[in-house]
Amino acid sequence: LGCNGSVHDGCMYAFHDITGRVVRYPLDTFGEGGICEEVCKYGIEEGLLAMLLPCGDHTFLGMGTYKDRYHYVLFDDSSKVLDYGVEVYNAGQESFDRYCRFLSNQGCMVRHPSMPWFASAIYCSGNIDFLRVCDGGIDVVESYRYGNPDYVAEVVGGMSQVVPTADTRNGVLDLCANSSHVFALYSDERILDEPYCSDCILVFDWSGSRRTVLRFPHPIYHISATDSHLYLHVKDGEGNDRLERCGIPDACRDYPES
Asked: What DSSP state is assigned to residue 32?
């Protein structure tokens, strides 16, 4: 459960939800094998976290499930819960037990490079949230609900799992961000027809306003961004992985500053 990482302020942050450990590795020490520093060890009762990002030196925003009903929880490095919010899409579905509900609400989350602003999406869905952490609370700036995940909850051999159906869509496959935009790799195709890739990137600003749609001539599997470039994980005609770089299109910039 919940083992993931992100890069912020020149450090690689990683966490493991079973042990509650949050560690960071300064990027400039990777050539020396990496120097690991434990940031905190948390314990959030009634919480299962799939993603965790730092809001500052002592606070963190977790995404997953909290109290089996809420999608986000804000807490400090002493495990004090400061705020929580946004109901999960299947909060009222009794067919989902605690772990199935957690598994069906996993996804990706990114943070603004310098502000405690966040964008988050659930896999196999069109559900995207834009959040800001301020005054010790979670402020929901904008939410999109293009479509909930289509899963069947099962318990097999005592293990909870969620299984895609024949109609499950790819939805949001990946998120990345820079100081002005959030980019969402998105597909409305069924997983059975076009698994886990797309030629479409939705572009938002940090206020949650959708600005444009970028189309590419080939499928993309993962994305990342700087202020000047998009980086695209693609495959060549023989199925080999390749990294492409393209400038941020003018279509992303041609609008009045809000």
From this structure: G
Contacts of residue 159, Cβ cutoff 8 Å, sequence gap at least 6? none
How crowded is the C-beta side of 145, counted as CA atoms within 13 Å? 5
pLDDT of residue 255: 46
Read off the pLDDT of residues 161-219 as tens digits, 9 standing for 90 and up.
999 999 999 999 999 999 999 999 999 999 988 889 999 999 999 999 999 999 999 99
What one-letter code names the amino acid at 191?
Answer: I
Q: Cα separation of 154 and 175, whole Å?
A: 28
| Beta bridge partners of residue 142, listed in sequence order | 130
Closest CA to 126 of 141, 152, 107: 107
Q: Would you call 80 exposed, middle or buried from its count of C-beta atoms within 10 A (0-12, 13-18, 19+)?
A: exposed
- Cα gap 167→114, rounded to integer Å: 39
Q: Which amino acid is at 225?
A: A
Q: Work out whether strand 47-54 and strand 37-41 pair parallel, antiparallel, or are unpaired.
A: unpaired
Alpha-carbon span 160 to 98, nearest angstrom: 9
Spatial distance between the Cα atoms of 144 and 50, rounded to a whole number of angstroms: 20
Containing 100, the helix (H) or strand (E) segment is helix 98-103
- Reported residue count of the chain is 258
207: how many CB neighbours lie within 10 A of its CB?
11
CB atoms within 10 A of CB 186: 21
